[in-house]
């Protein structure tokens, strides 16, 4: 058998071109700095243009800067002194007993559960009309047709 050819070393004989690698890396750094500088200048210019467009503040507004407005202030500002989660007043809680609100006017405060029971017993809230089979077949029966342009149907003559 023939022996392998051994005319020289078994690796690449040319050196790496370090000048090209360092030149390319330097070019990348210079381009990155130039792009960053260009973006910074662009944003600086845009900020200055925006400042030029904004109206000058009123001298009255500058004079009163940091001061609270005169009384009365916001409604409910007294709530800020009450700890979070505690009830503010008795009226905010649901009534759980019977009591007079206006004895002369006949106004009484009653518990909510009893109020709901009275409404159901006396049928104070009207219930929905019972649906018929016809409603299920033609759900558009109550709607006006396009022919009458939304006006109600004419009454039939006797």
Write a concise keyword list for the protein shown above.
158 residues; mainly alpha; two-stranded antiparallel ribbon; 4 helices; 4% strand; elongated
SSE string: HHEEHH
Shape: elongated
Query: How is the main sheet built?
Result: 2 strands, antiparallel
* Poorly predicted regions: none
Number of contiguous helices: 4
Percent of residues in helices: 25-40%
Give the spatial strand order of the biggest sheet: 1-2
Distance between the termini: 125 Å
Please state the CA-atom Rg, rounded to the nearest Å: 43 Å
- Structural class category: mainly alpha
- Look at the structure and give the mean pLDDT: 76
Number of E strands: 2
Strand content: under 5%
